[in-house]
Design a protein that fits this description.
InterPro entries: Methyltransf_25 (IPR041698), SAM-dependent_MTases_sf (IPR029063)
Strand content: 15-25%
CATH superfamily: Vaccinia Virus protein VP39
Helix content: 25-40%
Number of helices: 6
CATH topology: Rossmann fold
CATH architecture: 3-Layer(aba) Sandwich
Number of domains: 1
Bound molecules: S-adenosylmethionine
Structural class: alpha/beta
GO molecular function, one term: methyltransferase activity
Radius of gyration: 16 Å
Keywords: Methyltransferase, Transferase
Distance between the termini: 32 Å
Number of strands: 8
Protein name: Class I SAM-dependent methyltransferase
Enzyme class: transferase
Shape: globular
């Protein structure tokens, strides 16, 4: 994605940031909520873990994990969304989170990372860039990566698409292949909907099994 496209996308999210948390209405809402809960449950950080949330938005996942983790880092390309996330942290008195600018392929966080999470954000990248993003995530060396997102379990050309413009879903197979290629073992595949799921990837040798 070019810098200009990233900038435009970040700006689009900034324009809706103030009402983003109310916007998940209608058919999508239970699916989105179920996906978010699974991401939080599977992340399961230890008290001294550093968690990195990519495409953190208004901090839904980052803030939900802050109580259990040592430190949580939220990264996003939208200044408006980051501002909302910071305001929510402050209102809730949560001090072990930090929010700032960062892109999937350049998260701008140099410290050690134990767990990477991402919810409903990777679909903004075309498949080739999803691959690059997952390579960057693997290079950060987390023991676990939990990805919740739009992804196709069945046909990649469904008769009733759940999402419209701006959602570039990958197939589950493609994502599992890339995760495996970069050295993760996929230890759980949660199907929330035929077009939404959560994948849990662990460093091989950290209790995960190797994907066949
Ligand atoms: C649909 S929102 C999801 C936010 C949050 N994870 C949640 O579950 O509520 C997608 C977020 O991804 C961010 N985003 C899109 N492309 C990104 C990229 N390349 N790198 C980092 N964040 C990105 C957007 O700015 C937006 O805040």
């Amino acid at each position: 994605m070019t810098d200009k496209r990233l900038e435009d996308l970040g700006e689009r999210f900034s324009q809706i940031a103030h009402h983003y948390d109310d916007k998940h209405g209608g058919e999508e809402k239970p699916i989105y909520n179920a996906c978010a809960s699974l991401v939080v449950d599977h992340a399961d950080p230890r008290p001294d873990d550093v968690v990195l949330d990519l495409g953190t938005g208004t901090g839904l996942i980052a803030l939900a994990l802050a109580g259990d983790a040592g430190h949580v880092v939220g990264r996003d390309i939208s200044d408006g969304m980051i501002k909302q996330a910071r305001a929510k942290a402050e209102e809730s008195g949560i001090e072990n989170v930090e929010f700032g600018y960062g892109e999937f392929r350049d998260p701008r966080y140099d410290g050690p990372v134990d767990i990477v999470v991402s919810n409903f954000a990777l679909h903004h990248l075309p498949d080739e860039e999803k691959r690059e993003a997952i390579e960057v995530i693997a290079e950060l060396g987390p023991r676990r990566f939990v990805l919740g997102d739009a992804m196709f379990f069945g046909s990649s050309d469904p008769e009733e698409p759940l999402f419209g413009h701006g959602v570039d879903s990958a197939t589950v197979g493609m994502l599992v292949d890339v995760l495996t290629d970069v050295g993760f073992a996929v230890t759980a595949v949660e199907r929330v909907h035929d077009q939404v799921g959560v994948l849990v990837a662990e460093r091989a040798g950290d209790g995960g099994f190797t994907h066949p």
